[in-house]
## 1
Amino acid sequence: MYSNIPSVSRAIRDILFSNSIYMNSLKLGIANYTALAIKIKPEVEKIVGSQININTIVVSIKRIADTIQQQQQSKQDLKISQDEKEMINGARISLTGSILDVEFDKEMENTEKIFDLFDRESDIRFNIFQSKNHIKLFIENISDIKKILSNDLQKIVGLSSVKEGVSMITIALPWQGNEVRKTYQLLSMISNILYNHEILLHNAFFTPNEIVLIISDSDAAKVYELLRVKFYK
């Protein structure tokens, strides 16, 4: 013969799920389980028709709360995963190791000389970034450029610094200018990855269609792999 009397855990669950205040406090993680157990104890005992130990109710409430919060976290993780998938869909990353970081004071005369110099050296690949006071060149052909550094480049007034030991990660973005919001979302994701793995940026630049990260040679392969797994998983 089967009894129609609900189990203690079922009675507690029915009481909690039928009360929006109880449910909200459990979802937000602000419920005091003991106080809540004392509050619903009379109703639970009425449903099951017997006296119930308060600790039994507390344990049951905690189990229900854990399940609710796990389900919420799973939904949140799924949403984040879907957002990230949309955000990085079509993005492509590349790694260029052992580049040279050359910085100049930003003067028009120097700018013209720099472009003239590299126009004559067609095999030299470089990225150029300008700030208010400086021009930065990130040069890929480090072996070829050293000869130029010892000759023409050193003659240009305003050369601030020449640094080795850095690599460049380039992320090409597929979206159009009206989707620039995705660029900022991607920057936030990359910042979290670098922060979580305690990796320092040497420099960084971005446009709506490209993100360039300058990282020490010792960290570059690790960062590239972290991003590759994120992009192509």
Note: The longest helix spans residues 54-88.
## 2
Amino acid sequence: MNRIILLVLLTLLPFSLNAESKLNAILSSGELKVGTTGDWNPMTIKDPSTNEYKGFDIDVVTELAKDMGVTLKLVPTDWKTLVSGITSDKYDLSTSASLSAKRALATGYTDSYFTYSTLPLINKKNSSKFKDWDDFNKKKIKVAVTLGTVQEKMAKEFFPNATIISVEAPARDYQEVLSGRADVHITSNIEASTLIKTYDQLIIVPVSTGKKPTPLAWLVKQDDQVWINYVNHWIALKKASGFFDNLMTKYGLENL
């Protein structure tokens, strides 16, 4: 069945398969290399005790490798080097990342299969202080973000009067809020829903609306249209089969 899926997708490609395409290289080597940060729950999480990865995105790329009939190799990366890992051929694609005009200057994107919005999280003990977005755009307010993320750029846009604290992986922005070193951090509604279940001290601020609806997609080599087309066709087939809907339910994301 997996080989049948692969053959069907190959017939849809408008370009001839050639030695310069990632697709041909992956099939020849028998290995699909995927860059992943392992710090975005529930999309990609690395267990430090076993060094194994799990999550929504990990399930997706595992399925992709299976359908291609190749072995999956997960390559550790972080947000600030996510793009350079693609351009330097360190990996064939990344797990999901926010669509960004800046990233798109250097790398390509696949079609999206999920759209998130951005929400603020605070320590529960400060719930009476913050009710909406404007409450954070003030002097003496400290906003934590993770270096190299789209949220880092968003925070500078949303809160020009606040102090932005950019933390570098493997540290994370929400840890600054938990420790009291920051008043708030912003993240996707995907991660926010998981964090409040994991940490009783954190709550989502009941803002009037989430900001910046942003599609998620995989980063791929910008000039490799053969590889991009193959992955896009694969995503379309998996959407039609209900694969992504089932994963949304598995990870409790169906109502986001």
Note: Residues 2-110+218-250 form a domain with the D-Maltodextrin-Binding Protein; domain 2 fold (CATH 3.40.190.10).
